[in-house]
Automatic annotation (TrEMBL), chain A:
Pfam hit, one: UQ_con
Matching InterPro entries: Ub_conjugating_enzyme (IPR050113), UBC (IPR000608), UBQ-conjugating_AS (IPR023313), UBQ-conjugating_enzyme/RWD (IPR016135)
Record-stated family: Belongs to the ubiquitin-conjugating enzyme family.
SMART domains, per database record: UBCc
Keywords for this protein: ATP-binding, Nucleotide-binding, Transferase, Ubl conjugation pathway
Protein name: UBC core domain-containing protein
Automatic annotation (TrEMBL), chain B:
Annotated protein name in UniProt: Anaphase-promoting complex subunit 2
Gene3D superfamilies (alphabetical): Cullin Repeats, Cullin, Chain C, Domain 2, Winged helix-like DNA-binding domain superfamily/Winged helix DNA-binding domain
Keyword Glycosyltransferase: no
Segments forming domain Cullin family profile: 403-614
Family annotation (InterPro entries): ANAPC2 (IPR044554), ANAPC2_C (IPR014786), Cullin_homology (IPR016158), Cullin_homology_sf (IPR036317), TPR_ANAPC2 (IPR057975), WH-like_DNA-bd_sf (IPR036388), WH_DNA-bd_sf (IPR036390)
Domain of life of the source: Eukaryota
Transmembrane segments: none
Native organism: Psilocybe cyanescens
GO CC annotations, alphabetized: anaphase-promoting complex
Gene Ontology MF annotations: ubiquitin protein ligase binding
Amino acid sequence: MEQLTSSLAPPRSSPKSSAPSSTQQVAGSVAKRLSNELMTLMMSSSPGISAFPKHDGNLFEWVGTIEGPSETIYAGLTFKISISFPSNYPYVAPTIKFDTPCYHPNVDITGGAICLDILQDKWSAVYSVQTILLSLQSLLGEPNNASPLNPDAATLWDKPSDFKTQLMKYYRPVSDST
Amino acid sequence: MATDALRSQVATKWQESFHRLNSDAPGISGLMNFSEAWAISTQYLYPWDINNAFVGANGRPFGKDLDAARPAFNLVNHSRRLPALLEIFLDDMRQNFYLIENEINQYMERYEASQETAELELLIAKLMEWYKSWAPPQELGSTVFSSYTLNFQTRLFSALPPSFAHGFKTLCARLLSPPADDLEETWDPNIYAELWKDFEVLGLIDRYESIIASVGYEFIEDHVLSRCTGEWGKPMLEELRVWMSEKVVPWMLHVYARGASNAEEARSMLQGVGSRFDFHINKTLCDLRTREIFDIIIDFPDSMGALQDLRDCLQRVDQRSNLVKSLRKSNQKRLLHPGADTKLILQQYVATIKCLRIVDPPGVLLFKVADPIRRYLSIVANLVGDDDGGDSLVDENEPIQPLQQPELEDYTDPSWEPEPVDAGPEFRTNKPSDIISTLVSIYDSKDLFVKELQVLLAQRLLLITKENSDRVERERKNVEILKIRFGEAALQVCEVMLKDMTDSKRIDGHVQSQKDSVVHPTIISRHFWPSLEASDLAMPGQFKTLQDEYAHEFSVFKPDKKLKWLPHLGTVQLELELEDRTVEVDVPPLEAAFIELFADQTVWILDDLISSVGSVDRSSAIKALSTWVDHGVLKEDPENTFRLLERAEEPSESTVRERDLAALPASEMDAPPLSVTQQQQADQMRVYWKFIEGMLTNLEKLPLDRIQSMLRFAPGYNQSIEQLSGFMEAAKREGLVVVRDGIWRLNK
């Protein structure tokens, strides 16, 4: 619900705005910060992670892409996530969920919600989209089985072949999902 | 239906009045006396026509004998009939005031015809005469007198025509300003004291107070403008204040401190108006300096006085926004136009910084004014200091500080002050900073600035030849200064570049000691220098040999390193021995390469020449060859065929050369060793590509128009959709993207 409201009412910006130079209309420091983060992310070229605003004129809703790290069970798979920034970002963490079904101990397989400390109580304003994406990428290979959102996956983690079967059962390649 | 009671009451009153008027005199003789006294009194007071008076035997106007009238007044007063007498008198005055009106009209007609304020002075004098003649004697008491004065003034004001106000202003102005033929110093405002007293008596000062004040204001304005316009050398404010206390205050005493019994009282009466006048001095001076500000800045530091005035005035007068507006406007008009040299703009900008820091130490004004200049300037070129000086950015008297990072304000600082009210939300510096910090703030980030600096330094270092190698030291000094501001780390690359220069010299010294060579290379560390324009130029003939020999010696000296030549950079000193003459020139390498080819073969066609020196673009080749045509060494005949002139020829018509030069794009004429703009464009395109890649990675597939609109997230994106289309097509040829039905996606 929180995610819904924040996406319905991004501050100081109009999601329907299609006027030219709409990035400038999204005034305010939050937009500026997001704009800087986008620039940094675009120029950093970290392999396997990426994100971009969904619509022009709205910097508060992004789509992210995470490739499974090599030498993990997720290698070769690509996951889409949606990132929704609150109006008081970066003082409050963005809301992030998996759009691609992700069979993982810390990810809710149906809703896509993620259990990651830095997205909840450990959030700090020094984190950025890039650090979140990197954390998510490493979370894929190193789940926190102590606090699972998906207890089945947590149990199966030690049995890679069974895990992989479940993973692939739920997984849908990106190009099919769009 | 009068009752007895009423009857008796009336009778009592009647008796009372009778007794009062009759004053206990026998019969009605008291009444008779009173009647006579009343007649004398009214006769005495009657407002008479002073121009046509009946003159009595005693030489005074008829019935105007105060000695005779005095007992009558006493009697009237004693009978308590004074109020009635006053009433009668005022009514007579009303009826006779037309006499004065006529008089006023006559004088005003004359004034309007001649515009001579002397007429007004006469009128005032005449009015005083009327006033005094009609005035009731002191014996009747102050109530009667003040009623008379009030009545007289009221009637006078309604009788004065509108043109009087204007005339009165002119008159006041004349009274205030010293006579033209008189020296200002000897002028004494007290000479008109009597006249001012008359004004006061007639109530004109109260009535026309605002007009008199405006006379004062205009007087101040005239003086300030005539005294201070263009006088910027020393602060004028103090002098103006002295002038005011000497010349204006005495005048003000008449106007505003009338009736003051002592100096103390006068001072307190003058306080309000004095502060208004002082404000007006400030405002006038402030407005003047605001109008002049652009030239004041040009004159800096000779205009120090004006700036101090401006600072002091601004504290008193809230005209800051006007100053900003004025300066921005004149900057726009006089500075930021295509005709102005960048260096001039820069000098003015630096002067602006210095000036506004005097006027407004917190820097808010500067921030507001500098903004348009910031946008206009591309400034680094001048920052590192040109040979021929100009205004030095590095002020040796100024303590060098590290570049200021945005930081939280320290509210515990006892000298903390809030930002001025006109500081906008985007006002950046909260502390006054030095000039380089302000300059650097033109660039949005420090990184960008440092990068620009590197490119520039590279260009300058590569232009250094053996003869002016001392310039390395100068560059080093600059870098050292900048290092204090940007930090060691940021300028490390520049440091390496400078080290390369000294190393080159050292290595060259060693190589030369092993084997003499005319080649003196600058050996640069590729990773630390901005990418240099690649070239496929291959030096032919003896140059090749020289290079190879040098490279060999170098590899002996530094076995782990290999020289990769950038033969297109540098200069070659040539001595051409021709049959009839010797030509000595310093030329770029390409020129040298071409002429070398002519040593073996005297006629070449252009395409062969180009292919013999590796691969160079045609326009550069033509330019190089025309250098020789200029020197009369080669001749183009026919087109695209070049022949060596062993014997000098009379320079034929130079049409060929001109045509070739005209055909060259302007940028090729003096192309720098590495093209900053091109490189920047390439950098920009790299940034845009990252964004396109980013959006296609995440959004999978997009039509061209959406890519275009999404690219607005990239800072500074300004390409048209046609340019983007061309760019995408190029990316497609590179195999980076694919397109189907107008929808673009990444090629995975």
